[in-house]
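anyone seen this seq b4? input:
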Amino acid sequence: MGLLDDKVVLVNGGSQGVGAAVARAAVREGATVAVTGRRPEPGEALVAELSAAGGKALYVRADLADAEQAGSSAAEVIGAYGRIDCLVNAAGLTSRGTLLDTTPELFDQHVAVNLRGPFFAMQAAVADMVGRKAPGTIVNIITFDAHGGQPFLAPYVAAKAGLIGLTRNAAHAHRWDRVRINGLNIGWTATEGEDATQRAFHGAGDDWLADAAAKVPMGRLGQPDEIADFVVFLLSDRSGVVTGSVIDWDQNVLGGLG
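predicted toks r here
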């Protein structure tokens, strides 16, 4: 039996990167999966891939920066499959800004994608779980940078730190509903989005990944499939009663120096 047999899993931001890896891992563990994303091409390609491998998958076009779409996408999944058992919020915006040069518009974009979207997606999913009097699990993909981060990540850190607080607040509020909510503070990860970010904001060339790997303790960046396996564990009954935990998933150690 798979860890997620007979579960319906919604992965927001699931068309690429960590979200897509989570979708693949969830299907391998027996889940029916729905993924959301703004661009239909990668979302539909992923669903075709999962379906060809024998999985059951659905793509829902949605921009999680829009609170209404965050809720309506969950409603579409419930309409298609009858329920949501597990939610993963993996959508994220990583555009750069410091305390001194961040505009109100950039700040609002980060809050919309990295905090408000997860809030209203959780609202819709938990309402379904509570309405059915059924247990459920949620994992929010956050970031190790939420502990402080680099100077050019000011609005990103502000929004993601808010998501840590939201994760713990919602977990506390719904523990008696048997809805478990946890977060994962992932570190530097080799994804399509990170490749685009490095090229757009840091002038990186084709060899940036090798250069980055040489600068970190384990000699490689985090891998989406490894993160996905851990997310599936947190979604599954094998993670027991744990809720309200925000786990650092990185090769740096908080509080360590040098």
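The chain has a mean pLDDT of 96. The helical segments are 17-28, 40-52, 67-81, 104-131, 154-173, 192-202, 208-213, 224-235. kinda curious what u guys think
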